[in-house]
UniProtKB/TrEMBL annotation:
Top-level lineage group: Bacteria
SMART domains xrefs: AAA
UniProt cross-references to InterPro entries, sorted A to Z: AAA+_ATPase, ABC_transporter-like_ATP-bd, ABC_transporter-like_CS, ABC_transpr_PhnC, MetN_ABC_transporter-like, P-loop_NTPase
Record's protein name: Phosphonate ABC transporter ATP-binding protein
Keywords for this protein: ATP-binding, Cell membrane, Membrane, Nucleotide-binding, Translocase, Transport
CDD domains hit by this protein: ABC_PhnC_transporter
Source organism of the structure: Microbacterium sediminicola
Gene3D superfamilies: P-loop containing nucleotide triphosphate hydrolases
Pfam families xref list: ABC_tran (PF00005)
């Protein structure tokens, strides 16, 4: 889906300006990396896209949905189409990998069915395919807490894929991983972007990873976009 920011600002209740007049157009299928120091506005930017943080002024549209000014109930359909990945994986550690991935199907089923574990065969099939795509289908029945950090992040990616998303937002997905594992997770995210054509936005602290993987690098500082280009000339992006 195409994402358009037109002079978008976010002011938090504390008075802090999280975003300050953002103008951006992200074409369908692009793999974008957002870089910036802590407090630059990266999380705020991605959280406006699924309506988690409300826009204070300006216009934000995701696909054909206008997000700015929309009520929470109007954003339900959009949220189902936007997958989020976090630094802390956010898995339910005591339950199986499979059950964690099935969480991505919750919007397709009733709460009662999910509580009873009565998943439709179709939901299980989609969850299996998602685990295959990230290469850990053999871990399906292992407890999430028994996996390494990199494997847990792959489960989180599979959970998002089970959502059958149009957009993937990853907020510092590799910040708690060692460099080889971080590279692996970035490779997975970009491969999935290439295979499925899902518009993907990844927030990162480090410019080197951004340069290696981003088709487009957006640099942020003080809630503003201070760089928008490719890796070759990204020296001033942070
Ligand atoms: P980054 O992801 O680049 O670290 P953030 O988007 O988290 O940046 O933060 C941008 C600015 O907004 C910072 O000054 C931060 O302290 C502030 N901020 C973020 N979340 C909130 C919040 N929930 N309430 C108030 N201020 C916030
Ligand atoms: P990040 O990894 O993006 O830097 P933080 O650790 O800054 O995240 O923030 C963690 C949580 O605290 C987020 O939900 C963010 O919105 C919130 N937060 C960040 N800064 C502030 C702030 N100044 N006041 C209130 N909440 C904040």
């Amino acid at each position: 889906m195409v994402i358009r920011f037109d002079n978008v600002s976010v002011r938090y209740g504390t008075g802090t300006l999280g975003l300050d007049g953002i103008d951006l157009e992200i074409p369908d299928g692009q793999f974008v990396v957002v870089v910036g120091l802590s407090g630059a506005g990266k999380s705020t930017l991605v959280r406006t896209i699924n309506g988690l943080v409300p826009v204070t002024s300006g216009t934000l549209t995701v696909g054909d949905q206008q997000v700015s000014g929309a009520r929470a109930r109007d954003l339900r359909t959009l949220r189902a189409k936007v997958g989020m990945i976090f630094q802390s994986f956010n898995l339910v550690s005591r339950t199986s990998v499979m059950n964690n991935v099935l969480v991505g199907r919750l919007h397709q089923t009733s709460t009662l069915r999910s509580l009873l574990g009565w998943w439709k065969p179709e939901d299980r099939e989609i969850a299996f395919q998602a685990l295959e795509r990230v290469g850990i289908v053999e871990k399906a029945w292992v407890r999430a807490s028994q996996l390494s950090g990199g494997q847990q992040q792959r489960v989180a990616i599979a959970r998002v894929l089970a959502q059958e998303p149009s957009v993937i937002l990853a907020d510092e997905p590799v910040a708690s991983l060692d460099p080889p594992t971080a590279n692996q997770v970035m490779r997975d995210l970009r491969r999935i972007n290439r295979e499925l054509g899902i518009t993907t936005i990844v927030n990162l602290h480090f410019l080197d990873l951004a340069r290696t993987y981003g088709d487009r690098i957006i640099g942020m500082r003080g809630g503003k976009v201070v760089f928008d280009g490719t890796g070759a000339d990204a020296d001033d992006a942070v």
